[in-house]
Amino acid sequence: MARSKQNFAQKILGLVSYGMPAPVRQVVTSRWIAMLIVIAVPILVVSGVLSISWNGYRPSFNIDQKRAVQVERDLEKQATRAAQDLRKMEDSRRR
Questions:
Q1: Which residues pair with 58 in a beta bridge?
Q2: How is 41-82 classified by DSSP, letter by letter?
Q3: How many whole angstroms separate alpha carbon 24 and alpha carbon 22?
Q4: Where are the domains of the chain?
Q5: CA gap 57, 81 in Å, rounded
Q6: CA-CA distance, 76 to 93, in Å (whole number)?
Q7: Does residue 34 contact residue 53 with C-beta atoms inside 8 Å?
């Protein structure tokens, strides 16, 4: 039986999740979940929503709820502004 190829994200998460139980590891290293984790985690860390601290060799993940709400509000404002700008551009093209 041919073995499917793993993408870069799956290989990284396969190494990171080495000590996890097999069912958890299978979910984490699935194609779409692995890609989502590799993209989302750095964004959450940079935005201050997620912080990672190390206790020996074990990472500890902390989520800042207040910062998450603030980031969500900022994104909503930016999305609203972008939608308004897009409407203005469409209106100006119609004239």
A1: 55
A2: HHHHHHHTSEEEEEETTEEEEEE-HHHHHHHHHHHHHHHHHH
A3: 6
A4: 1-63, 65-95
A5: 44
A6: 26
A7: no
Name the region of 59 (left: φ>0; alpha: ψ -120 to 50; beta: rest).
Answer: beta
Determine the 3-state secondary structure of 3 from DSSP. Answer: coil
Six token digits for residue 47: 């935005």
Q: How far, in Å, CA of 14 to CA of 29, rounded? A: 6
Q: What is the C-alpha to C-alpha distance for residues 55 and 61, in angstroms, rounded to an integer?
A: 11
pTM: predicted TM-score of the whole model, two decimal places:
0.66
User: Which tens digits make up the pLDDT trace of 3-48?
Assistant: 678 888 888 888 888 888 888 888 888 988 899 989 999 999 999 9
